[in-house]
Amino acid sequence: SAVISQKPSRDICQRGTSLTIQCQVDSQVTMMFWYRQQPGQSLTLIATANQGSEATYESGFVIDKFPISRPNLTFSTLTVSNMSPEDSSIYLCSAVGNHLGAPNRQFFGPGTRLTVL
Amino acid sequence: ELKVEQNPLFLSMQEGKNYTIYCNYSTTSDRLYWYRQDPGKSLESLFVLLSNGAVKQEGRLMASLDTKARLSTLHITAAVHDLSATYFCAVAHAGGTSYGKLTFGQGTILTVHP
Q1: Closest CA to B59 of B77, B73, B43, B71
Q2: B48 is in which domain, residue-wise?
Q3: Residue B104's closest CA among A35, A66, A31?
């Protein structure tokens, strides 16, 4: 199975600041995604991280708030901008693709637990 | 819009008993996933189901898929405490530009008691 790492694993931030989360996959993948899991809730897709082009955002999420980069096939970043306490969540990176040695499997990183004060 | 409904949302089981978690979804899909999440942890991939009638088993867990009914089940046999966790089903959006996107169910919090 694929190994997906995220940095930082957790952070406590002040409102109004920004945090960039990094996601690294140990092999080239077709698709990378960013999800949010609010406390006690299920996962919601934020956006698809497209390699070499702008991310595709889901309804309710905008680029100004959650800018995403994907400079190559194994790395992506998500920035949570101008944070408020409502942004306190776990942010998870996900990857899918036949390169992962398990066709059709979709794997998740360990998550970044963000607390905004 | 793809909607995914799980039930029950909370499940308290005695060790040794059997039970089933249900996952209903609203539109056609070619892949359905089951994940496990322990408190404070990320998601562990349990099963991916690709076709109508697919059945996968791993230990005390068995997952099945009925694409015509848009229903998947996760059956737990002879529950043990180690199975206590939150279980999510996730349904893949149909292909094209939506390839790889998942919509998750609400999750089922399973607690196994002695």
Answers
A1: B77
A2: 4-113
A3: A35
Q: How far is B81 from chain A (nearest CA, A)?
A: 21
Looking up tokens 């006690």, which residue turns up?
A40
3 state SS for A87-106:
HCEEEEEEEECHHHCCCCCE
Inspect the interface and report whether the beta carbons of B104 and A44 lie closer than 8 Å.
Answer: yes
Q: What percent of chain B has pLDDT over 70?
A: 97
Say what the pLDDT of residue B28 is.
86
Here the CATH number for the domain that contains residue B25 is: 2.60.40.10
Sketch out chain A's domains with CATH numbers.
18-98 (2.60.40.10)
- What's the CA gap between A92 and A83, in Å, rounded? 17
The tens digit of pLDDT for each residue in B85-104 reads 999 999 998 776 677 899 99
Cβ distance of A43 and B31 shorter than 8 Å:
no
C-alpha A60: how far from its chain's center? 16
Number of domains in chain B: 1
Residues A87 and A116: their CA atoms lie apart, in Å, by 7
